[in-house]
Specification:
By secondary structure, this protein is an alpha/beta fold. Helix content is 42%, strand content 17%. The protein has 11 helices and 12 strands. Strands 3-2-1-4-5-6-10 form a 7-stranded parallel sheet, sandwiched between helices. The chain has a 3-stranded mixed sheet with strand order 7-9-11. The protein has a two-stranded parallel ribbon with strand order 8-12. Strand 1, helix 1 and strand 2 form a beta-alpha-beta unit. Helix 1 packs across helix 2, helix 8 runs parallel beside helix 10 and helix 8 crosses helix 11.
Length: 320
């Protein structure tokens, strides 16, 4: 009787916040992860994966533009699934659009070429799109003579939209199936970079009895990081035919809603947590395609539960 071959997933951006939680989800499912990034992040891996898993993790250091290195990794580890998360974020793309284009557009195309060159081996492909492809409400000015709804207001959003269009071309011409996931603001343990890391950092500060200022206001959609990681892993393992792009059912909340939720778990925290600053720019999906349309059993984590898990994460590490 033939034994099923082991599954191995290459995770680009595996040193990042979401990438590390994806590694954890893969390990929990008994799938071997291979992290691919510019640098390892042992402290983050130790916090989220545990010391033993962090030390034994397979890691490939390199650039998305290095096609030979990616192919070597594919051959060496017999990669069966791709989860592509690596990207330059909005501030870096705005400051240096050329670098953002190379990483976010050319780098993504490199991953699709890897999937095409190894189509007999790679069984599934998921990648990160973003709510940044959506802008505020549509205006009346056309783009290149064509009316466009909610067009991206940033280079980052434009690059992500370009990647989605490229994915569609790989399906049309080469039959490379993929599934993109568009989270909104992702929060949870070890989110520590970017303006919207504020609510996550506030939860950590509350556990440590420290003060913290969340430097933006307004309402946005929020996705708990373990949901996001689970979505990327499922999308890679259960990639449907076509070039699929799905939105996560982000829960609308204000930064003050986070403070209220944190204070309910850490009484008195509100006295040391402040909120202020410009409102977060809105992103509206004119025609959302929620992940539940492909995975009907999808159940998102509520804001209250996500904040509780974040607080408990730091409480557990405070007592060890």
């Amino acid at each position: 009787m033939n034994q099923p071959k082991a599954l191995t997933a290459l995770v680009t951006g595996g040193s990042g916040f979401i990438g590390t939680w994806v590694l954890k989800e893969l390990l929990a499912r008994g799938i071997r992860p291979v992290a691919f990034d510019l640098q390892p992040n042992l402290p983050r891996w130790q916090q989220i994966l545990g010391a033993d898993a962090a030390k034994s993790l397979d890691f490939v250091q390199g650039s998305l533009l290095n096609r030979e290195l990616l192919q070597q990794a594919c051959d060496e580890y017999h990669i069966t699934h791709l989860i592509h998360l690596a990207a330059l974020l909005t501030p870096a793309c705005q400051q240096d659009p050329w670098a953002g284009f190379q990483v976010n557009v050319v780098g993504t195309t490199t991953l699709f070429e890897l999937a095409r060159a190894n189509a007999a081996q790679i069984q599934g492909f998921s990648y990160a799109s973003s709510y940044a492809v959506y802008g505020p409400e549509a205006d009346d000015s056309p783009v290149a003579g064509v009316q466009v709804e909610n067009r991206p207001p940033t280079f980052y959003g434009a690059f992500k939209l370009a990647a989605d269009l490229i994915a569609d071309q790989y399906w049309r011409h080469f039959g490379i199936a993929s599934m993109a996931i568009r989270p909104h603001v992702v929060y949870g343990p070890e989110r520590n970079q970017g303006l919207t890391a504020g609510p996550s950092l506030a939860a950590r500060a509350a556990v440590h009895g420290e003060s913290y200022h969340i430097a933006y206001t307004g309402t946005a959609g929020y996705d708990y990081v373990e949901d996001v990681a689970r979505g990327f892993v499922r999308a890679a393992l259960e990639t449907p035919r076509g070039s699929n792009v799905v939105d996560l059912p982000s829960q609308p909340a204000t930064t003050d809603d986070f403070v209220t939720a944190i204070d309910a778990l850490v009484p008195g925290a509100r006295a040391k947590l402040t909120v202020g600053g410009p409102p977060i720019p809105p992103n509206h999906a004119p025609h959302p395609n929620y992940i539940s349309n492909l995975f009907p059993d999808w159940k998102p984590t509520s804001l209250e539960a996500g904040v509780r898990r974040t607080v408990e994460f730091y409480q557990a590490r405070q007592t060890t």
